[in-house]
Specification:
This protein has about 120 residues and is α+β, with helices and mostly antiparallel strands. The chain contains two helices and seven strands.
Amino acid sequence: MSARDDSDVTVRQNTENRTYEAVVGDELVGIVVYERTGPARLALTHAAVEEHHRNRGIGMRLVTDVLDDIRRQGQTITVYCQVVVDYLGKHPEYADLVDSEAPGRVTRTAAGRPSE
């Protein structure tokens, strides 16, 4: 895979392990770890991409797919993972997913955008 090429990445939810997984072929290359904290809320606690797969857009693809899946399921998020906090700061279109009662490390600016 060349730099910024995530076309071979598949993102899947592993409910048993409470993770979303980025897979290339048969290799697990990245994860987002979560905890269910309510009937319609997930706390995103950690994200990582294997070192030899970094700087290829896999992390961005992983977080995007996770947030899109959470939106499809009609859930909200509490964010403790700095990777996701940073992503939300650059992608305000996902600000509506942050649970206003339990935002975690995300706060809202006057414009309604998430920030650290």
